[in-house]
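Batch job 17 of 40 flagged for manual review because the log was empty.
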Amino acid sequence: MAAVSHTTSFYAASALDKTQRPQLTQDISCDICIIGAGFTGLSSAIHLAEKGFKVVILEGSRIGFGASGRNGGQIVHSYSRDMDFIEKHFGKQTGDGMGAMAFEGAKVLRRFVSDYNIDCDLKPGGIFAACTTKQLDEMASKKALWESYGHTELELFSESEIKQHIGSERYVGGLFDKSGGHFHPLNLALGEAAAFESLGGQIFEDSKVEKVIEGAKPKLITANGSVTCDYTIVAGNAYLGDLIPKLEAKAIPCGTQIVTTAPLSKAQQKDLLPTDHCVEDCNYLLDYFRLSGDGRLIYGGGVTYGAREPSKIESMITPNMLKTFPQLKGVQIDHAWTGNFLLTLMRLPQFGRIGSNIYYMQGYSGHGVTSSHLAGKLVSEIITGQAERFDVMASLPQYPFPGGKLLRVPYTAMGAWFYNVRDKLGL
């Protein structure tokens, strides 16, 4: 069987490490076996290897094959639902516990980059751009909320101020997060993989787990080998498939689309994003964009429910890009791709245990960059006897989507359509 290749993304084309790891072809054992070499699996692996565990990662495709190597490359704090929602629905104790961790994932990411000298074009600063005065009011509330949890690196922009950062007429203001940022996600994943291997860890690619046998020592079966371990971490997220039936009904894969222009001149770059910060708007179906390390505009947005591969990504994304930056009319698009993230009904992460020795973390619902890095730290804590913080995450309810397999996608798409119309009407 031919090896699976990365998607046709700018990130894959500009990856710094194209080394292919071996396929698992024997029966081995270790302390901890991780399913998936995305950010969740890699963060878990590094944290556990740093603690002295013998760790193996089984990756069905390539390192960073899924959302971790395809996303917009932006550091965005907190969760898809913010702490006010969490406190309102699940109580102050849970809200405080989640709030205490809401800004930690980015610190984990930056520590990895610093400690292991990862080359991933990491740059500081992120902007939430408001399209309406209602959204700007919401950003003022977000600023107050985040500051109440000790996150003070924030500045509210007026309409005139935001134009100093974004060369567009679309926005009436925004919220600047100095501790946000952007980076090349696939190079980060590959750098984290190399960091893990430098600690003695093993990664097997093209080694899709076909069966998990639960027990005192779980056994993971692949096409040509197996791993027996003390603990298993399930980190497949939107690319896990039906391997763990208990998890499949709790979330649905959704696709987001991204295009990348040809390299722009220095003058064009300065015109679009003078301060080189990344941007996401405040719509329900949001757009997000930034400059790459070599001066391209990376522009993404839109959602396809049920993880379909849209046939014409450029036609979906380019109109919005030109609405934001009409000065780019006629620009060449060099790359277009889609990637899947895992959406939960409550738009909150799902952490938990299956039995006493299988842990899972999934469903970041569009906030996976920071939440996945946090997840790795938390699972390393619980495996070493510190369960409190993992258990805060695990206490959140994990409802199945209504409609079952047949209707959950159309129901979710209908809800998204309503919010999209509301945004367009400025309601």
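Reviewer: the log was empty due to a logging misconfiguration, but the result itself is present. The domain at 1-121+184-248+345-396 is CATH 3.50.50.60 (FAD/NAD(P)-binding domain). Unflagging and moving on to job 18.
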